[in-house]
Amino acid sequence: MAKINPEFLDELKKYGGNDFSACYNCGNCTAICSLSTEDNSFPRMMVRASVVGLEEKVTSSLDPWLCYYCGDCSLYCPRGANPGELMMALRRWLTAKYDWTGLSGLLYKYLPATILAFVLTALAVIGLAIKLNFEMETIMHYGHLFEMFAILGVFMVILTPNLIRMWYLVIFKPKRNIPIAVYFKGIGELFIHMFTQKRTLGCSNSQTRWFEHLILVFGYLTLLFTTVVLDWFGTENFFIIALGYIESAVVFIVTAHFMYSRVNKDKELNKHSQPSDWLFVIWLFLMGFTAFVVRLFIDFDLLAANFWLYLLHITILVQWAVLIVPFGKWTHFLYRSFAMYFSSIIQLSQETKGK
Amino acid sequence: MASNKTKTLNLVKDKIQVSEQAKQRRKTYSAMKKQILAALEEGPMTLPELAKATQLPINEVTYYLMTLRKYGDVKTGEIDDNDEFFYYELKKQQNHGED
Amino acid sequence: MPETTVIKKQYDALVIGGGIAGGEAALNLANMGFSVVLVEKDLSLGGKMIHLSKVFPTLDCAACITTPKVSETARHPNIKIYTYSEVKNIKKQSDKLFTATVFKKPRYVNEDICTGCEDCENACPVIVEDQYQHDLVGRKAVYIPFSIANPRVANIDMDNCILCGACEKACLAEAIDFTQVIQEIPIEFKAVIVATGYDMFDPKKLPNYGFEQNKNVVTAIQMERQLVPTRPFNSVLRPKDGKMPNNIAYVLCAGSRDETVGNPICSQICCMYSIKQAQLIMGALPMADVTIYYLHIRAFGKGFNEFYQQARSMGVDFVKGKVAKITEKENGNLIVRFEDVYKGKVKEAEHDLVVLSTGILANKGIVELFPGLNLETDPFNYVKQVKELENPSQTSIPGVFVAGTASGPMDIPDSILSAGAASSETASYIRRLS
Amino acid sequence: MKKKIGVYICHCGANIADHIDVEKVRESIASDEVVFLSRTTMFACSDSSQKDMVDDIKKQELDAIVVASCSPKLHLQTFRNVAVRGGLNKYNYVQVNIREQGSWAHSDTPAAATEKAIQLVKAGIARVIESQELTPLKIEAHNKVAIIGAGVSGLRAAVELADMGTHVDLIEREHFIGGRVSQWGQLFVSEKNGEEIVKKLYETVIDHPMITLYTGTELIARSGSVGNYNLQLKITPRFVTQECKIGAFDKAIEICPVSVDDEFNFSLNKRKAIYKNYESEFPHIAAIDMLNCTKCGKCLEVCNSINLNQEILIENITVGSILLSTGFDPYEPSENEFSYKTIDTVITLQQFKRLVELSPNKLIYRDKEIKTIGFIYCVGSLQIKGDNKYCSRYCCTSAIHTAIQIHRKYNIKSYHMNRGIRTYGKQELLYTESSKNGDVYVEFDPKKEPIISKNGKQTIIKVVDLLTAKEELDIPVDLVVLVTGMVPRKDNSIADILKVPIGRDKFFNEIHPKLRPVETVIDGVLIAGACQSPKNITESLKSSLAAASKANSLISKGEIELEPTLAVIHIAQCDWCGKCADACPFGAILKTSIDGKEVAMVNNANCKGCGMCLPVCPTDAIDLIGYTNREIESMIDALID
Amino acid sequence: MSETTKNTAIKVLVFSTEKISDPAIDLAGLLKLHYPPTVYVIPLPCSSAVKPKWILRAFEKGYDGVFIAADGTDCSFSESCVEKTSDIIAQTHILMKEKGISPAKLKMAAICSVCAEPFVKHMNNFVEELTRNKIN
């Protein structure tokens, strides 16, 4: 017996789910989806649960994460109900649901809150810079320190508890008893998906999309590693410097292409961008781009004269690290991977039970 | 009488252009007809057999065979043992006048 | 018919379209004593209905209902008929009178002399896809449209004629006349009934169904032809390889209730005609399984739901779910992919023949018949009924009425009623003029 | 005299030929010496076949023809016309039914079906030999139609007929006209509401010199037949002679002590014995419901137009044709059907629509403001257990249209428990609109109906949703609306009076849904609107207009041709005993004296050709034309030969 | 084969009525409801028009049974139809007895215009009954 939440439909609209109540349940979206299988049929059931108000069903579901938004479902939806975009909205909503701080939901739902948060972080950075009298060395030192602590902090304080919440909602609460051994058995999946996103290949549209995504992930992660661990901005090592250049270039070029697609709306998945989507690509682009230019300025000895540039870079970095990574679209990267992991261990445990 | 018979065509023959498409259709039909009827000389055949015998795409064989059937060159025989394909055979030219 | 043809320039009413609605409307008016000119663009009267097998829910044969009506219309002394003709330039001469021109296209056969003996057809060496069998089989370049056509006379398809003269030699009645040209006949009338019918949706607009590439995917109208006595094949067969199908799928809402093809409305007849065909197939091929993939069964008319239940009890399998993709296998069988909605699972099923229950669309180009007069249409190009709850046949032009599917999807009983209403409103309109 | 007879046997495509060896039938009768020619044909009814038959009759100088094909109900007239075009008398034609009573009935036994067909054709030949040339009877037709029921169908047909020059007696049982449509507010496909539609029609009717309106009037008896129906009307007075002065009427209502359920509002509220259903109702005069009036006389004190002594009148009218537009009743759920009448928050769609009409700003029912609504569809339609197997056609659209209205008017969210939405045609757009508004459509299995319960003040619908893979949902709502379908009128005594056939669904039955959808087997009695089957307003109007044109073409010429099927007396055998006169239901047989002998005589104008007089005659002195001893006996013989 | 059936099969003559029971018999065919093919139908305007002498003639000629598919209360001519048809049956029964014909060979039932199924049931039962009696 399922309780329904009559407000759920309106709630999802705030997360960018539009038109989905037009659904007349023909199942075309599920049948056209190249990732949908008999054991794992979506997205119609998610659309249905959203319309009816079966909040629990959505909360405990991994389906939204299993979708990589090729857009076929929306393109061929006979009622224009846009199931693909609803899946996107559900991912936002789930992100908010997993987030113990509640900030995610606030940022997704209210654009002014997002803007305010960005302005405040920027002011904090500038305030700190003023306090440090714009001393380049110190600020760069603090900047580097910040990077290290931010990563650790966000992981420990926000993301790990959120992942536990995710586990609680999709595995523990729905009483899916999974033996410990299975958790280990499936761990490989987690990393494979985290780094390769190989599931995208099953999507009907392009291989280029998967490739772009793949090199972006690699570019981003290695850039992170290069700046934080190898201290790209501080190093003299030619090899590391070159590596950083390549990585940052990959990040801003790929994101630039993403932005171009979104502006042109050339594909179904690019038709309905939300502010959170824009923020994610723009900031990623800016990060890569400013990092590239900062290092360039360092190499040409121009940074001291153009210190504002570093400040800009660090501001973007801070905003990225304290807003987008813990509360924004960045989390998709993590939740998707864990969703694949959870999904595979659920399946594994069912298989063992079956035997 | 006989001289009158082609009269109207002669009046317009120079004015109307015969389309390439029409010429092609005529050619294809007579070629198909020839091949299908020749193959059926060997005895009744099902459509897959006929396609194999004539080395023609099966959907085209079906279309032309059914047309030949409509115009009385071919008639339907028994169905095969699997109840899947009918045999088609040549219709013996009989004297006209029968309904 | 020579016994009735009195060429008269002025009529009480013009009926555009000689299908079942136009015919009924013309007959009603003629029976009330009005003179009617009926213009049909096709070679025969009878519209779409004359080509159907049996009609739901009574399962009586369409020809048995249509042909008597058609011959009654054709013979009526108050009705002048132009087939294979188009009416254009309908204009208002005054508040009380319309003028127009009928363009009578040449058949290149003298209608009055032709006996419909088919000698010319047998002599012709050119084969063209038979449009009356929906391209399943060929016809000649000179041909009798179909066996129960009215008038049952030959016609030369000049686009495909090679001018060999064989037909003219074969015709003992000397009815072939290559010198025919388009005839323009000016007419005057007081009122118009638009009964131009509908168009079938073109399934090529649904790329995922692969109509044309997948030869064993047919439209329902092609299946309909396979079920009539004058069918294209010797039995119900697959068009690709002539195999007798034993597992047939119907895909409903192909081109209806679908915003992606710009036709969000329900076509109103496809559910019922598919259910009817399923029953007929089970009669014709007792071993065959029939599956109907549907969204909602629209069995709303008198006796319709009972008919639907009858199909269920006969063993027709009804599966709720829209077929999203059809792919052909090597052996010509087809894989349909759909979600079994009641189970919530994606499935694939193999069928050896798939029938697309295509929807219906408005017949375009009606508006252009009335230059300078604003004939309003609804967003789907159907003629707009401007006072639907008062005068259901009234259009935006005074004196112009609409009957049958020209105003929206409709089944046969509704078309007949609509034609009855149109003739009634037309009659009182004409009487009010004088 | 030997007749030259032509026999045609129809394949009817495959309908006959699949089960009957048509050629064998032809061969077995071809040798009969009276059979001059025999042919088979693919479609006897096709124009070319008809043409061939006409040619045959003319060239071969045939005296009579037999066509063995489908039921004479379909094509008797068609082939009679063929006979006439060939120059024969149309009664020198016999149709043999080898389809409905041959190939189709015996498709399981083709050999025997062929045998039967041979016998039937032989009997047909035997009969046609005995057939006589007859001339149809012409009877005078009154160019006047009685329309029973002044709902929109009746009103619209009346206007149309009057415009076409036919007189109309428009007869309404209630004191007010407009029928069901006047009860509905905003209508689908129109900016106008029900009241406005009715108002416009009423004004046209009342001003039209060709229309006489009777309210409070019932048809109680009928005699005569097509062209000349005599109807007896019972006119119940309204006891109010003209409209009371404005204040006076309100006062009369105030002081009237009688309070009864207001049926116009489906018992949502009460009304007095003196009443009007709504302010601007037509006719504009109030009426007193004498069934409930106590004749206390209080109203007389405030309004001097009231006369409680008015009496019931009986009036006779003569018309040429009768058009029935008696409409429908909404299905009344039985007690406890979906908790109807046992849970107070359960009402019917019709009640709900009235409630919406009566609630301008907020929707309040039983002192509670309504925020969410659950609609339950197919109540009384598509029944599994009950008798109503049919779909009521209008209810899906009506409920969805109402849901859109209440969303717009009061921002109410609705849940629709349905069995597959049937918004056919352009009505689909309403379904889309409602879905987009956020209304939720839940599909249930008819074998697992939703259960309504009450938890404190909260009404809960428990339903298993097929679209969510059978998830059981608990839906909290403020009001449950049962989407009740259409059923035939409860009081359908009119069918008995007019002998109109009733179909499987208990609605009036047409002759043929496609060929003759507004005619009944009773000549001159037509049906229009929802009394024939469930219909929406547009569909009702179309059928009423179609019926109007049929009625007009039937009677407007002043005379009608009738079958010359009449009883004839063989004077020589008749010894007047009077038994035939007693048996005749139409009083068509009289005593007369011919050459001093007392014999019976048939009044042709009254004889309807039923033949009831035949078996009672002790001397077998009566024959029925077309069914004479010779004809029937020759058939009896031929069938077993 | 047909020759043998012809001689042994039970033959039934049905008097139907054009507006009421005949449509039902047609409907039976339309619905492909089967009844014995040796049932022959002669339609009349009304079931109260059947002359007893026709029935007797039928028995004389060798029919095994006669069935009157009566209008019943649906009769469009007169309400007295039921009564009148019953009278005809009663009267004929007497005449049959005189001639030594079993009264079980003449039956009637009201068949409404949509009573296709009841008609078929009546025919099957009647023929079965007549067969039993004939064998015995």
Give the distance, in angstroms, between the N- and C-terminal Cα atoms of chain B: 28 Å
Radius of gyration of chain E: 14 Å
Order of strands across the biggest sheet of chain E?
2-1-3-4
Strands of chain B, count: 2
Order of helices and strands of chain B: HHHHEE
The proportion of residues in beta strands of chain B is: 5-15%
User: Looking at this structure, what is the CATH superfamily of the domain at 24-90 in chain B?
Assistant: Winged helix-like DNA-binding domain superfamily/Winged helix DNA-binding domain
Counting helices, strands and paired strands, the structural category of chain B is mainly alpha
Q: What can be said about the biggest beta sheet of chain E?
A: 4 strands, parallel
Quaternary status: heteropentamer
How far apart are the termini of chain E? Answer: 24 Å
Largest interface: C-D, 76 and 78 residues
- Compute the number of strand runs of chain E: 4
Low-confidence stretches of chain E: 1-7
Radius of gyration of chain B: 18 Å
Global structural class of chain E: alpha/beta
Strand order of the largest sheet of chain B: 1-2
Structural features, described:
The complex is a heteropentamer of chains A (355), B (99), C (434), D (641) and E (136). Chain A contains 17 helices and one strand. Chain A has 355 residues and is mostly helical. The longest helix of chain A is centred in the middle third of the chain and has 37 residues, at 136-172. By secondary structure, chain B is mainly alpha-helical. Chain B has a domain at 24-90: Winged helix-like DNA-binding domain superfamily/Winged helix DNA-binding domain (Arc Repressor Mutant, subunit A, Orthogonal Bundle). Mean pLDDT of chain B is 86; it is low at 1-5 and 94-99. In chain D, the strands form twelve sheets. Chain D has a five-stranded parallel beta sheet. Chain D has a five-stranded parallel beta sheet with strand order 18-27-21-22-23. In chain D, strands 2-1-3-4 form a four-stranded parallel beta sheet, with helices on both faces. Chain D is globular and about 90 Å long. Classes of the chains: A mainly alpha (355), B mainly alpha (99), C alpha/beta (434), D alpha/beta (641), E alpha/beta (136). The A-D interface holds A 1-4, 6, 9-10, 19, 21-25, 45, 48-49, 51-54, 57, 79 and D 372, 413, 421, 431-432, 435-443, 462, 465, 467-469, 471-476.
Write the layout of secondary structure elements.
The complex is a heteropentamer of chains A (355), B (99), C (434), D (641) and E (136).
Chain A: E1 2-3, H1 8-14, H2 28-32, H3 44-52, H4 55-59, H5 63-66, H6 72-75, H7 83-98, H8 103-109, H9 111-131, H10 136-172, H11 180-185, H12 187-196, H13 207-228, H14 238-264, H15 275-299, H16 307-327, H17 331-354
Chain B: H1 7-12, H2 20-40, H3 47-54, H4 58-70, E1 74-79, E2 86-90
Helix pairs in contact in B: 2-4, 3-4
Chain E: H1 2-8, E1 12-17, H2 21-30, E2 39-44, H3 52-61, E3 65-70, H4 81-98, E4 106-110, H5 116-135
Parallel strand pairs in E: 1-2, 1-3, 3-4
